[in-house]
Amino acid sequence: MAPPTSPLHGVDPATEQIATQIFDYVLQRIRMSPPPLDGPRPAAELRAATGPMITDEGLGYERAFGLFRDVLAPACISSDHPRYLAFVPTAPAEAATLFDLVVSASSIYGDWWLEGAGAIYAENETLRWLASLAGFPDTAGGVFVSGGTAGNLAALTTARETWRREHGRDRPIAIAAAPSAHSSIRLAAMVIDVPIVTVAPDPRGRLTGTALRATIEAAHADGLDVMAIVATAGATNTGIVDDLAGAAEAATEYGAWLHVDGAYGCAALASTIGRPLFRGIEAADSFVLDPHKWLFAPFDCCALVYRDPGLAGAALTQHAEYLETLDATAEWNPSDFAIHMTRRVRGLPLWFSVTAHGARAYDVAVSRGIELAQLAARAIEASDHLELVMEPELSVVLFRRRGWDAERCQAWSDEALADGLALVVPTVHDGETMFRLCFVNPTTTSSDIDAVLAAMR
Ligand SMILES: *Cc1c(COP(=O)(O)O)cnc(C)c1O
Q1: How far apart are CA 388 and CA 379, in angstroms?
Q2: Ligand 1 atom having least distance to the Cα of 150
Q3: Percent of the chain at pLDDT exceeding 70
Q4: Does 147 contact ligand 1 (Cβ within 6 A)?
Q5: Which domains does the chain have, with CATH numbers?
Q6: Cβ(148) – ligand 1 distance below 6 Å
Q7: Which of 128-132, 238-242, 325-329, 407-411 has the lowest mean pLDDT?
Q8: In terms of DSSP bridges, do strands 173-177 and 225-232 run parallel, antiparallel, or are they unpaired?
Q9: Of the chain's two ends, which shows fewer C-beta atoms within 10 Å, N or C?
């Protein structure tokens, strides 16, 4: 046998042993119900606990893995904990998490059909499922990108390039969005250097067709063409879904691109009880949906879908001499549809889980988030120390703790995390500090909700 040429490669007995240890760890981690909530520690403490990690000689598998298991992992919050109810939690299906290991082990280059045909085909079938839930035509398509932020940027860049191709570059352009649009929309607008004109929200904070028309007309009078409309479905802070049908009508009337940011909420398209809220999305030009939020995929995974993916390809395809050979064989090159090149086939964990479990199981699991929000809202209404701020639409619940100011809310939140009870953080809505719960984890129970609400007494 030839001597090994790389000290990093090959499976020797030590590798076999660490493999067993890692598989055992993974199995234990996904069996934990619940996993420890855990929490952050200052870098100085972590440094003291780990000692030097990267050395000339290496620490060996045993010590390196021990550092992760005993020091680093406990300094990370488990976002799949059933009482992680802040921000937007995650709750990957075990099948999806396990399949992520297969993706890692398979060295599949996810950007060109030449290299990743089988995996890309499976990802595209999964995108087709999501597109069909939105009522998009069979010709719709896109790509799985890292997150809603990346997806929104690619969609708005495509919108701008499409506009310029049709209308030239002479008149200044703008994007219309409501104040509830996600921060990543403002970031994307900054990157593509197109200002946002703000659409006055209705009393529930929604963007409506009527207000949108007024904004577009006012912008026009100021010499600005609204080239794109961003509607949110639903807003991260409130869970409220914009008037998508109204936005779609205005978009058609003014020739603007309609992008629906459903990074959090569009997963509810998979829910029979959630789907009616999205009426009008079928007329959008693009949408994003993060399976790592409410569709039970591990981080990181965003479905970016275009009605006409050819427009994205025209705007975003990279051209280089060394890539020319790829176009000849291309059935579908995912690199052409967003701002990236090398890409993990991050849609496969979702593909595996939905293929194995079926869409009906997804309906049940997503619907559970909506039901939990209803349970929480009713429990809040029935209590005397809490006050519901608005009726939940999807799976976000906003409420006040009577008599607590911002500082008291934050102190309670810090304590709840330190005690391992829950991750529930204050938010600001209409200038007021209050609490917010976001349900996507179907393993959260009504007792979890009761425990959190009771601790606020
Ligand atoms: C979470 C979220 C985003 C950002 O998505 P990432 O995956 O974190 O990049 C964008 N829009 C909305 C509405 C969101 O909820």
Answers
A1: 9
A2: 9
A3: 98
A4: yes
A5: 33-77 (no CATH), 99-357 (3.40.640.10), 366-455 (3.90.1150.10)
A6: yes
A7: 325-329
A8: parallel
A9: N
